[in-house]
Structures are given as C-alpha cells and as structure tokens.
C-alpha cells in the first residue's frame, strides 16, 4: 500500500515577501523614495547655504531659523492629512489671518482673556474644518471649491472687520508663544517655543499615522471605493482630516502673532506654501502616498531654499516663481517614483504568479504608507 504525498508537500510554495533587511538596508530604501529624498535635500541645501553665508553655520542661527520655519511646517503637517486623503485645503491662509485678527482684538492687553480666547480660536478652527469636511463629503462638492469658497468668505470677513489695516495688539505674554523660548541653553543659546510646539505636534502626527485612523486615511486616498467596502466611514475620516488642517492653521496663527504682528495680510499665501512643502516632501497629490514628517521636512527644505537664494543675491520677487516650478517638478517626480514602487516584483518561478497580487497590495510599512 502506497502512501500519498500531502498536497501541500507536492505543491511548490510561493515565496513570501522579504521584510527582514537590516536597518541600514531599510534606511537606504527609504531614502530612495520621494519621502526620504527630502531629508537628503535638506542636508544639501543646508551645506550650500552655509557655503554661501558662513554665518548660517552657527548653531544658534540654525535653531532660530527652525523656530521661524515652525509655523509653515505645522501648516504643512495639517495640509498633509487633507492631501493624503485625496483632497485639498485652500482655506489655510484665510484661517491664519482670521485667527490672528481674532487674537489681536479679543485678547488685547487683558492677560486674563488669553486662555478663553485661545480656546475660542481652537473651537473656531474645529468649526471651519467641520464645514469644509461636510461640504466636501456629504454635499459632494469638490474640496477645491469648498475650501476656495471658505477662503474667500473668511478673507472678506477679515477685510470688513479690519478695513485692511492692522488692528488690536494682544498682551505680550500671549505673543511670547511665538517669539519666546527656553534661554541659556548651551551651544544654541535658546530653544524657541515654536520649535518645541513643532516637535510635539510632529510626534503626535507620526503616532496618529501609525494608528488605524492614519492607515485608513491613506487607504481612502489611495482607493476610496476599496476603503468604503472595507467598512471605513469616508465622510468621518475626511472631515477629521479637514479639522486637523484647520487646527494646524490656528496653531500657526497663534505663533505668527508673536513676531509677525496683527495684520490681515498675515498668513497670505500660506495655503500654497503649505501645499508646496507637502509635495516637496514627496506626498502625492491625489492621495494615498507620502509620509507626514516628510511634509514638515519639505517646509524646512523650502525655507532653506529661499534663504540660499537670498544669500546668492536673487530677488525675493522670484519666490512665487520658484514655488510654482517646485510644485510642477515635485508632483511629476513623486508620482513616477511612487508608481514604480507599487509595481510587483518579477520572479523567476512561475509558481509565484498567484502571490503577486498579494505582494502588490502589501507594501513594506513605512515605504509607501504614512507610517513615518
């Protein structure tokens, strides 16, 4: 009597995806992606800026530069949530201006109003985000139109209340949030409060993108239909993304009051600067690909580029032109790079054919998802 060989032993098993590379191999693979390449760009721009202006090599100068960059980096983090979900938020600059004017006129010189007005500003930020989110998801109006309308509405309201001129002056203790810091620190002399706020929000953002909410948000941007079938509530996911975006603009506005003052022009163009930073960080317009911390790194790279151009004697009027070219180039490069990363690997074994669909939809964590 002959014993039959079990089916599993007779069938050649398909190779499983290999994710056991060393940390150096994974780091090299990450740097080869658009989201990782932005860190290389930051280092290259920093070196070039120091060569063009040796004074920029002082640690204290660099730390103050990062403090001034914190508001746009925070705005870029908020914009990331919306873009990675497949939407846009064009109301950021108007939200910043509205919050700045609100702080200047409601707080005044009365320090006892700082806490209640700050809470009110955060509540207004939540309300704006909810309106943007519900208008996009439940009403079915494209986010480009909804947030454009919100931008115009808020801008008109600010102009009406201020007459286009600076109004109000909040207490110095409130302005310290944006222009103060921890002093007498060795080497760097001072650690700006905005940089501390950016570090805390960056850590929270990275943590949130590793949670089910973050993974579902990336999935919704990559394939909304598949995300809907899997049970994700798209309207609630995207509405939360818009709320985070508006709250980040609110925090940026609170910081900007410290050194930019109270003027309706504060925050002008912030939405486009934030979008530029996000795409420079390798995030794909249309959603589904990119890292949240790379969006913040994109803001640092963008500001470093402007400092370098200034050091080289390039007129500031070229700034908008540079931003436009960066958006076009970064979108093209990032889209192609992420697309190449999604292609299934070819194997020599014909038995691996059945596993290709699985490996195609199971990217290495942190390589094409929002885990970093």
From TrEMBL:
Family annotation (CDD domains): TM_PBP1_transp_AraH_like
Provide this UniProt record's keywords sorted from A to Z. Answer: Cell inner membrane, Cell membrane, Membrane, Transmembrane, Transmembrane helix, Transport
> Any signal peptide, and if so, which residues?
none
Q: Which domain of life is it from?
A: Bacteria
Q: Where is this region: Disordered?
A: 340-372
InterPro entries documented for this protein: ABC_transp_permease
Q: Where is the composition biased (Low complexity)?
A: 347-372
Instruction: Name the residues that span the membrane.
Output: 28-53, 65-83, 114-131, 138-158, 190-207, 241-262, 268-285, 292-314, 320-338
State whether keyword Transmembrane helix applies: yes
Q: Where in the cell is it found?
A: Cell membrane
Q: Does the keyword Hydrolase apply?
A: no
Provide the membrane topology annotation. Multi-pass membrane protein
Q: What is this protein called?
A: Autoinducer 2 import system permease protein LsrD
Source organism (scientific name): Nocardioides oceani
Q: What is the lineage of its organism?
A: Bacteria, Bacillati, Actinomycetota, Actinomycetes, Propionibacteriales
């Amino acid at each position: 009597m002959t014993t039959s060989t079990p089916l599993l032993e007779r069938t050649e098993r398909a190779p499983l995806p290999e994710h056991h590379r060393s940390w150096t191999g994974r780091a090299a693979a990450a740097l080869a992606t658009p989201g990782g390449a932005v860190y290389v760009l930051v280092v290259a721009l920093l070196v070039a800026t120091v060569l063009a202006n040796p004074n920029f090599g002082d640690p204290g100068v660099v730390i103050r530069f990062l403090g001034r960059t914190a508001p746009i980096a925070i705005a870029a983090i908020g914009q990331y949530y919306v873009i990675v979900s497949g939407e846009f938020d064009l109301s950021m600059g108007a939200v910043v201006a509205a919050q700045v004017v609100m702080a200047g006129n409601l707080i005044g010189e009365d320090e006892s109003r700082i806490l209640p007005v700050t809470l009110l500003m955060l509540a207004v930020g939540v309300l704006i985000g909810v309106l943007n989110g519900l208008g996009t998801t439940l009403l079915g109006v494209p986010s480009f139109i909804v947030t454009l309308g919100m931008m115009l509405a808020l801008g008109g309201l600010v102009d009406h209340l201020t007459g286009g001129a600076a109004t109000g002056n909040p207490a110095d203790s409130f302005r310290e949030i944006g222009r103060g810091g921890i002093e007498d620190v060795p080497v760097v002399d001072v650690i700006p409060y905005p940089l501390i706020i950016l570090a805390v929000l960056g850590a929270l953002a990275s943590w949130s993108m590793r949670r089910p909410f973050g993974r579902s948000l990336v999935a919704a941007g990559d394939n909304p239909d598949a995300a809907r079938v899997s049970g994700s509530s798209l309207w609630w996911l995207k509405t939360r993304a818009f709320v985070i975006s508006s709250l980040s603009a609110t925090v940026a506005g609170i910081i900007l009051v410290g050194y930019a003052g109270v003027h309706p022009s504060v925050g002008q163009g912030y939405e486009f600067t934030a979008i530029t930073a996000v795409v420079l960080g390798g995030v794909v317009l249309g959603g589904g690909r990119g890292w949240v911390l790379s969006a913040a790194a994109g803001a640092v790279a963008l500001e470093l580029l402007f400092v370098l151009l200034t050091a080289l004697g390039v007129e500031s009027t070229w700034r908008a032109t540079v931003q436009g070219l960066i958006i076009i180039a970064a979108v093209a490069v990032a889209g192609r790079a992420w697309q190449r990363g999604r292609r299934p690997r070819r194997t020599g074994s014909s038995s691996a054919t059945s596993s290709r669909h699985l490996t195609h939809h199971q990217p290495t964590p942190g390589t094409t998802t929002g885990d970093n």
